[in-house]
Protein 1
Amino acid sequence: MSFEINGRLAEKFETQKVSERFQKREFILEIKSSGTTGYEFVDLIKFQTTQDKCSLLDQYNVDDMVKVAFNLRGRKWEKDGQVSYFTNLEAWRIEKTQNETSEPAIEIPVQENLPDQNAPFPSQPPENDSGIDDLPF
């Protein structure tokens, strides 16, 4: 599943060689948003790139405003009878954004066959053709 989010590149780290066949590079994206109370919230979110995507960060500087396309990944890990679960945000594309004052946005893929989000909420439930209330409570 693929997502996109805009934010400020707050920190980037060097590439780590985890094994002979695997390398990763992590970076931090700062996301600012305003709540309904008027307060500004700041989230610092860690992403990672892997293998040949580690070089994606080379052309960007800390404080650059960027759009990150990423996949959400989850894994199970067992050692000495202990089970742990990990979630990673794996970036696969990074683009510099021009508008530094825009509200950060996350784009979530839309699933088909969902009800229209802009349709008005009905004031009355639909009528039952048989006239019998079939609800169990």
Protein 2
Amino acid sequence: MIGLDTNILVRYITQDDLAQSSLATQFIEEKCSFALPGFINHIVLCELVWVLKRCYKTEMSQALRVVEQLLRTAQLRIQEPQVVWKALKLAQKGKADFADFLIAQINIAHGCGTTITFDNAAAEINSKTLLA
């Protein structure tokens, strides 16, 4: 596998920098394959959603569609895809950030009964508890 950093995905998705977007597109489309996939870890996914929302003013629903498309792309491998799918489905219905849903699902997958947080929006997630 080949690890992909957030900035490679951002350039590929947004096509906002002629030189870097061209390089990212060429790399992903020519070097990432089913036999040698590009690997996207949880941190990269969280950064990607954050960058799309904050820097590119993308609606959350559109940013989540990007995550879904990445999950469906055969030339890419997502870290613990079953955990990401669960977080994605919950994020599509919830109000917290994608990262909060992903944190909760990772913790559940690793045996945590709850996740303690100071974040009121994140505390709305069933597996999170507000520390007051």
Protein 3
Amino acid sequence: MPNRKLQGEFNKHGLPRQIPNPIKREVRRRSGFGCVVCGATVYTYHHFDPPYADAKKHDPKGITLLCAECHSNATKGLLSDDTIRKKTKAPRCLEQGSSHFKLDIGGQFPIVHFGNSLLVGNPTIIRAFGKPLFAVDRPEKSGAPFRISALFYDREGRETCRIVENEWHGFIANWDIECTGNQFEVHRAHGEIAFRMRHVPPNELAVDRLDMFYRGFRVIIQPDGRTTTYLPDGQMWFQWDGASLIGNNAVIVIE
């Protein structure tokens, strides 16, 4: 049997590399759900006080969020522990109100998986009262990427997250935002998923879970992939179990 300590799963004190989920959540919320230095949503958990090699426990006070570039700079000695301590006390995301990440979108019309539905060539995914809430715009010039923009709100009318011409923003007022691999997940409260998105560059985007509100209307993507829209009085308006829509002007229209 291979020695797990030699495989890097434990440090010299026998501390496992895997950080318990409640501690990860505490670190994420304190950091504003992104790299404390630059604000990037895609991050790693970095032990800085003490370094992981010397840590005897996973103390959230000594753990912070760093993006891959900032983490690499820290391990190479190009980003000092003193700077990391200062940024941990004043994270970039808390200063700007959100974390951010630039999505890698290519020059072909994006394929959007919306729950169980497959949407291709639809310039508007959701339009409400004439306002595009989820749209795909063509490139501004030849060779440039397609541009995805979207706005998502909770029942109080607050934005949970947005995409502005391929740049994702997750707001610090949320209860939690977790980035795992290529997946972004926003929680409005414990156990309440407001938004879950997967991005597969260069041209696939999957919204797997959604619970959004706009002027009383509610759009939900259920755990089984069904999409349901409710009227302001709470009555169900329509429901999809799955569809393939190609070239429609708009998919969900709320008037």
